[in-house]
């Protein structure tokens, strides 16, 4: 069943062009109708950085080197995951017209929506590199190891896509999954090393970076972009394994529950 869905999707023509077109439309609808446009994609993490910087660096004295950049990279990765999952819980309902009145595969709708989020993430990541390398004082420049962000992002994208598939298909039979997921995201946020010093995080929650794939991705992203080292490969493989297993589960649910979405929603 799962192989059938993937094979059907791969065989369709003009996939990349159609996905990119849908992603651009989604992105423009999200930002270009606002007066500040694309700046909104940057304003949110900057506001979050200001709040957490005051709380954890000024008041609680975390004493993390380059703490603003430390927050910046953690928050943009976290925001991508949250926006990609919470924004797609009702996607089978809000975008029903796409799979009912066209030959579009449901999987393409998810992929294009996450691609639109990727555009915003790319913009934020460029801002992070500029801030870390040229604005924040007392920090080293990024190295060739920064390119490790590409496989780490692929890991994050697969994890986000998998979570989106699972949540949106559960929504078909249990609409209160939206509230449950919001609470779970708040719980997971404070159990991720977004603003905690890494050695404190590992000391208080030993091995939790292997149980929380978002934590592992953020840790490895900082290694690649700020420490100038290769990621922890054991942690990377573990996180990728989580993502692939959840993706297979999501596609299975799409085949079982998603086929009935039009009549139940």
TrEMBL record:
Major localization listed first in the record, in broad terms: membrane
Signal peptide limits: none
Keyword field contains Iron-sulfur: no
UniProt-listed InterPro entries: ABC2_TM, ABC2_TM_bact-type
GO cellular component: plasma membrane
Domain ABC transmembrane type-2 positions: 36-257
Subcellular location: Cell inner membrane; Cell membrane
UniProt topology in membrane: Multi-pass membrane protein
A Gene Ontology BP annotation from the UniProt entry: lipopolysaccharide transport
Superkingdom of source: Bacteria
UniProt keyword annotations, A-Z: Cell inner membrane, Cell membrane, Membrane, Transmembrane, Transmembrane helix, Transport
A Pfam family matched in the record: ABC2_membrane
Chain ranges passing through the membrane: 37-55, 67-89, 109-135, 147-174, 180-198, 233-254
Entry's Gene Ontology molecular function annotations: ABC-type transporter activity
PANTHER family: INNER MEMBRANE TRANSPORT PERMEASE (PTHR30413), TRANSPORT PERMEASE PROTEIN (PTHR30413:SF8)
Family of this protein: Belongs to the ABC-2 integral membrane protein family.
Official protein name in the record: Transport permease protein
Organism: Niastella yeongjuensis
């Amino acid at each position: 069943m799962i192989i059938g869905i993937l094979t059907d999707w791969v065989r369709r023509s003009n996939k990349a062009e159609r996905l990119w077109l849908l992603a651009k439309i989604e992105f423009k609808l999200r930002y270009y109708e606002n007066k500040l446009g694309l700046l909104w994609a940057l304003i949110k993490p900057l506001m979050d950085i200001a709040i957490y910087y005051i709380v954890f660096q000024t008041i609680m004295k975390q004493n993390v080197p380059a703490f603003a950049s430390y927050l910046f990279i953690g928050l943009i990765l976290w925001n991508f995951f949250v926006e990609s999952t919470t924004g797609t819980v009702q996607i089978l309902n809000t975008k029903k017209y796409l799979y009912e009145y066209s030959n579009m595969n449901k999987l393409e709708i998810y992929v294009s929506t996450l691609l639109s989020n990727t555009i915003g993430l790319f913009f934020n990541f460029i801002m992070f590199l500029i801030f870390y390398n040229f604005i924040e004082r007392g920090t080293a420049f990024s190295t060739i190891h920064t390119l490790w962000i590409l496989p780490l992002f692929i890991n994050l994208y697969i994890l986000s896509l998998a979570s989106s598939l699972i949540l949106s298909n559960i929504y078909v039979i249990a609409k209160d999954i939206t509230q449950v997921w919001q609470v779970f995201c708040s719980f997971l946020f404070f159990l991720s090393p977004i603003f905690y010093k890494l050695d404190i995080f590992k000391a208080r929650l030993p091995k939790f970076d292997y149980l929380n794939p978002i934590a592992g991705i953020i840790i490895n992203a900082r290694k690649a972009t700020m420490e100038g080292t290769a990621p922890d490969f054991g942690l990377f493989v573990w996180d990728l394994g989580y993502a692939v297993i959840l993706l297979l589960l999501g596609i299975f649910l799409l085949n079982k529950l998603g086929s009935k979405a039009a009549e139940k929603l």
